[in-house]
Amino acid sequence: MLENSRLPAGDVPLILLGRYQCRFPVREDPSVPGGYRFCAGPTSPDRVYCDHHHSLVTAVEPRRARSGFHLARRAA
Ligand SMILES: [Zn+2]
Question: Which domain of life does the UniProt lineage start with (predicted)?
């Protein structure tokens, strides 16, 4: 078996999310605290989502993105 100490990305319950891990809920799982498993991809210190989900969220909600992510928009 490979190392079992870390859960793969996309399979992490909220209680195990680290400070700089993506908090995008990828699927429901009633067996874990919170009821969802999260992406847990690497994030920047000022973000709650990984690059992939950050762009996904800002694309869907441009108004919400403007409030705190103007720097990211400029870089795109
Ligand atoms: Zn993510």
Answer: Bacteria
Residues whose Cβ atom is located within 5 A of ion ligand 1: 22, 24, 39, 41, 50, 53
**What pTM does this model have?**
0.61
Give the residue extent of every domain in the chain. 12-75
How many helices (DSSP H) and strands (DSSP E) are in the chain?
3, 3
Residue 45 Cα to ligand 1 midpoint, Å, equals 14
Q: pLDDT for 10-56, tens place per residue? A: 788 888 888 899 999 999 999 988 899 999 999 998 999 999 999 98
Taking the centre of ligand 1 as the mean of its atom positions, its distance from the CA of residue 60, in whole angstroms, is 15
